[in-house]
Amino acid sequence: MPNDIARLISALAQSTGQSSDFDLNPNVARPAGGVLRQAGVLVPVWLHEGQTRLILTKRSSHLKHHPGQIAFPGGKVEDSDGSPEAAALRESWEEIGLPPDRVEILGSLPAHETVTSYSMLPVLGLVRDAFTPTPEAGEVEEVFTVPLAHVLDRSRYGIESRIWQGRKRSYYAVPYGPYYIWGATARILRGLAERAAQ
Fold this sequence. Notes:
Number of domains: 1
Helix content: 10-25%
Largest sheet: 9 strands, mixed
CATH class: Alpha Beta
CATH topology: Nucleoside Triphosphate Pyrophosphohydrolase
Strand content: 25-35%
Shape: globular
Distance between the termini: 20 Å
Number of strands: 11
Order of helices and strands: HEEEEEHEEEEHEEH
């Protein structure tokens, strides 16, 4: 087993607390009396051509929500799924053409609460075999990979901010080449990096 995979498995046993879009924004109020909808995303780590890489997507620019943003494959839990893990695998097949039987589930990170009222479970999955990423044209503009070492290096992360709904909102960012990885995706990866450093 590669050292970085063993490091990930060890990281899953560590505790770093909860994860949410509100971590850096205590002044942003959660919706009163709202019920969080369940979602599952896959954090796919791919052993590919002698390297350990993370698979991410760039969302289509024409989408109504989060156009052009960098994201994990995944989405809301449908009645037919039965669990966030099943939703993450189904959506990964639909969005990037990753067959569920090529994914070994290693475990999950704490659910991430979003400002859009989702409780999103990040499912860490190991992709051992070759596959050809195929972006789903309606949702995904591009599928790309990032070296796992890049996102596990806490020095690569910065805290940035922008005005959102009339207020300053801060968020983590971990850019890689032309890809600006930020928001919930970067927060989840930052949590993974914190665990891996323990």
